[in-house]
Model the fold of this input.
Amino acid sequence: MKSSELPNLIKGVLEQRPIKGIEETDPGIRHAAVLVPLFESDGVYHVLFTKRTNRVDAHKGQISFPGGAVDEEDGSLRETALREAHEEIGLRPEDVTILGRTDDARTIASNFVIHPFVGLIPYPYPFKVSPEEVKKLIEVPFGFFLSDPSRDRTMAVEYEGKTYRSLAYPYDGDVIWGATARIMENLVEVLGEKTDLPV
Done:
């Protein structure tokens, strides 16, 4: 498969499969939605992540996707993801082409159920990063998540005085782990053998 075919592949696969949701009756559970931004640069598709500041309420300093908790004013989970992406990195909702939604993910420490949406965005883009929420943007080639599927990517991650055994993707001095890593793993698993891309 050519790299240029990736967005259409993702859209086609996500449209044809049911979403595996997480049904929670615990009143302490909170719901959040994130955008998994995909963009093309020099013929290669990348995923855009954010590194959170230490000033946010939850997941301080972690690698994440643009997104956040559902507000009462949000009309849908999709609207939540797009609103948060605009607030955090200045990405206008009208500039995002939603390709589909992947399976829900659960955070370990903060009691969130996360609803992820995959979106194609233009690039280069005049991002406006919120200094309160985002320390930096991280661009990772999509093929990075496809390489060496037999490798055990579970590792010990130290965070806020605790050690977690988690799926993790070390990349360029940062570690993508926790729910963010599971969302990427889920997307790759959903696409299956169809993601025969050069890495």
